[in-house]
Amino acid sequence: MLTFSRRRPVTLSGFRTRATSRDTPCSSRYGPHFSRKPSPGDIHTPCAWDAAPLVLEGHPYPVLVFSHGLGGCRTTYTTFCLEMASRGIVVAALEHRDYSACMTFYFESQEGEEKMNKRWMLFKKVKSGKGEFAIRNQQVHQRARECSRALDMLSDLTCGLPVHNVLATSSLRLDAFAGLLDIDRACAAGHSFGGATVIAAMAEDKRFKAGLGLDTWMLPLREETSVFAHVEQPMLFVNMEKFQTKENLRVMKQVQTQSPLKKVVTLRGTVHLNQCDVPFLCDGTMRRMFGASSRLNRFTAMQLTTNLCGAFLSKHIDIPTDAKYTTHIQQHSSVIQEGITSV
Question: Active-site positions, per UniProt (predicted)?
């Protein structure tokens, strides 16, 4: 999934829906996706299929590589990714091949044959307790390498180098991105396991100039805290209240104390799934069944997440911002807790 901004419409490879105005309020801009009465089976994503990227002479787009959480995939976070794209960022949403995605596949070529075979990789459950860290740590470093490979591909695209799309699901010419991407303003973002992936990726690849950790799960790096000293770039952690344990926050605080450029905020009355698409795809009963029901309104939780992230990126990779986002944050300051106080 490759997402990029056209200022007015937003384009997301893999989805076909209507384009909407950037100035439309969030609740109406997202149509049924942000409807107070969701209608399963009639969900729309406000974007255009295979639309060519908007060319603004002299204004290349910053890029964001997004890493999904445990059991997620590249399409689990369309709400967040679309909002970031609508602010003028090219978003590349990954699907990791470390057996942490719900399911994914790759193509394998056979010697002497032109046709490639599709190989499926299904989610592998890992028992908690002894031995879990070693597996998760291995996975998080593979994920970090995949983030760097995605950034390599984006660099090739903007340099006009040939990139082969083995999926062949899109008619969009990839050479349309030549000269349009600003790799010097690259950042990484991720949810849960993806948040830990962002830390590992920034430690290993300094091309990532900033990071966003959405309710970051710190276990994959819990016994490798030495890596934190290598993360010199600014990073914002946006935590959901119910998910964060004292042990998780203890490890996270070791990242925060490395530099004043590391910020942590917690949204009160929120749950882990508030930062993915699940709360917007289910009715109240299903949200309670899946653990996606929160005291804080689900729309407010997502809007605060995207506004906080947008404000942070505007400082560190120079993306445009709007006073209405700052106003929205200030209006909900009572549910925003800064720093880590419970450790």
Answer: 192 (nucleophile), 215 (charge relay system), 272 (charge relay system)
- Give one DSSP letter per residue of 67-103, joined into a string: E--TT--TTTTHHHHHHHHHTT-EEEE---SSS-SSE
- Identify the helix (H) or strand (E) that includes residue 149: helix 132-158
Count of CA atoms in the C-beta half-sphere (13 A) of 172? 26
Asked whether 50 and 19 are in contact (CB, 8 A), the reply is no
Q: What percent of the chain has pLDDT over 90?
A: 70
Active-site choice (98, 182, 205, 215): 215
**Contact assessment for residue 336 and residue 329, using Cβ atoms and an 8 Å cutoff:** yes
334 in catalytic set? no
Catalytic residue (one of 96, 191, 272, 332) = 272
Sign of the torsion angle spanned by Cα atoms 297, 302, 304, 307:
negative
CA dist., res. 190 & res. 67, Å (int): 4
Catalytic hit among 192, 205, 294, 328: 192
Determine the pLDDT at residue 18: 30
Cβ atoms 81, 110 nearer than 8 A: no
Question: How confident is the prediction for the chain on average, in pLDDT?
Answer: 86
Mind listing the pLDDT tens digit for each residue in 22-67?
Answer: 333 343 333 334 444 444 544 666 777 788 888 888 899 999 999 9
Q: Each residue of 216-237: pLDDT tens digit?
A: 999 999 999 999 999 999 999 9
Q: Does the annotation count 272 as an active-site position? A: yes
Residue 192 annotated in active site: yes
| DSSP for residue 186 | E
